[in-house]
Amino acid sequence: MKRLYLLFAILTFTSIIQSETFNCPSLDGYDIKNLTIPTFWQFELESSICIESTESPCHFYFTFCKFLPPVVNSTCFNSSVCQYSSEASLPLEIGHYVENPFIPKETNGFYAEFKGPRISHKGKLCNVSIKMEFDCNSDQPWIPSQEPSLAPNPAEYELNSETCQYYIKFDYAGACHKIVPQTTTPFNPTPAKICKQPEGYDITPLIDPPYWTFNITDGCYVESNVTNTCKLYMAFCKPIDDLKGCSGSSVCLQYNLIPPKSVVAGGYTEDPFTSFKNGGFLAIYSHGEEIINPYTGKSCNLEIEVKFQCDKSVDWKIPEGNEPGIAPFPSHFSPVSDKTCKLKMSVPYKGACSKKTGLSGGTVLLLILLVFVCFYLAFGFAYQIFIKNETGNNRIPHYPFWSFVFLSCLEGMMFSWKFVTCQRKKEKLLKYDSI
């Protein structure tokens, strides 16, 4: 154990004055700053997992984008990952220095891979290596402390004795901060010209600000590593242009975590509006970020449907100076469930009351018939009076025909009335049979 304490002291002292540091390349969409600040990190594993060690635990020292501090008579000189136990005469190099060890995963998270020298393990020669996986967990920020900085306990670990490869899995808050690349759709500086207004409704206040902010207090739980409260940002007929993690989208959720986390709920849509049958209108956004549904464990793409409901008392006030707008509190918010990855939100809006009532097909036919009758009577009277010099009832166009139609209708109505009131039966009873 004395040798172990001596190694601690040497590493701590030399880390201040002799360690060589390089600029760590950025990892697109993730925060690796906390990982690269300390001179080195330390964690421990059971002896059964360590190469050529029976001491429990054995100790690992590792660093990113820099060399471990030099140690006298150490085989870990100019390396990035080193294993040490008090039973070993010298530390064992596990990973050579790599300028950029980070590899992003397809979903939230990333890897760090290091390859080491050829060693002998259990009587066989093999090339030692280590693969670290950093999985999203907002409760593990990896806060640097006094040297050496203690890493959180690995969530999973394994040693493949055949290949001499370590697999270590850590939880890390910086692995949650995936940024969605900006869409290739160009930003339109005059979105009102391309925004199709739902028939009969006023959307002018909605499309004026760069985006609107909604405070959601319940329903933001779209992934297992986020909270139930968030801010929802929404832009109409244009993409959000100046919010980190939301750029190029139209709907975005932001969480107050360390580090802050953004989730795109809806991609940029030039024309999101559709009229609603029962009054009001909808704004529908699809092509959101791919998430892992916390209820099913399956991947899916977020989408959101916003219903604007008529409320004449709610006026969305346009802010001054092209500032973002503060939207009213939603009347309803439906979160992700085990059946769908679609968010549904209902909001009150004065402009959803201005539905213009159009003429029905029957009304149009009646108007056409009325115009035709007016023309028929006007030209018919003129023809009978000025051309045929008719007088009296004959001035009415086609008077014999219309009088016959009128009298026939009147007779039919009288017959129907007598039939319904049984007057026809009484008349038959009063008649005598002819002799």
How many alpha or pi helices? 6
Helix content: 10-25%
Give unreliable regions as ranges: 4-21, 179-193
Oligomer: single chain
Provide mean pLDDT, rounded.
81
Decide which structural class fits the backbone. alpha+beta
Q: How much strand content do the residues show?
A: 25-35%
Query: Strands across the major sheet, in which order?
Result: 4-3-2-1-8
Helix-strand topology string:
HHEEEEEEEEEEHEEEEEEEEEEEEHHH
**Rg value:** 40 Å
Number of strands: 22
Write a brief caption for the model.
The protein has 435 residues and is an alpha+beta fold.
Strand-helix topology:
Blueprint: H1 2-17, H2 33-36, E1 41-45, E2 58-62, E3 79-84, E4 92-96, E5 102-104, E6 110-121, E7 124-136, E8 149-150, E9 156-160, E10 165-172, H3 204-207, E11 212-216, E12 230-234, E13 249-255, E14 261-267, E15 273-275, E16 281-285, E17 290-292, E18 299-301, E19 303-310, E20 325-326, E21 332-334, E22 342-349, H4 361-387, H5 399-420, H6 423-430
Parallel strand pairs: 1-8, 7-10, 11-20, 19-22
Antiparallel strand pairs: 1-2, 2-3, 3-4, 5-6, 6-7, 9-10, 11-12, 12-13, 13-14, 15-16, 16-19, 17-18, 21-22
Question: Describe it for me?
Answer:
With 435 residues, the protein is an alpha+beta fold. Helix content is 19%, strand content 28%. It is built from 6 helices and 22 strands. The strands form 5 sheets. It has a 5-stranded mixed beta sheet with strand order 4-3-2-1-8, with no helix packed on it. Strands 5-6-7-10-9 form a 5-stranded mixed beta sheet, with no helix packed on it. The radius of gyration is 40 Å and the shape is rod-shaped. The N and C termini lie far apart (145 Å). The model is unreliable at 4-21 and 179-193 (pLDDT under 50).
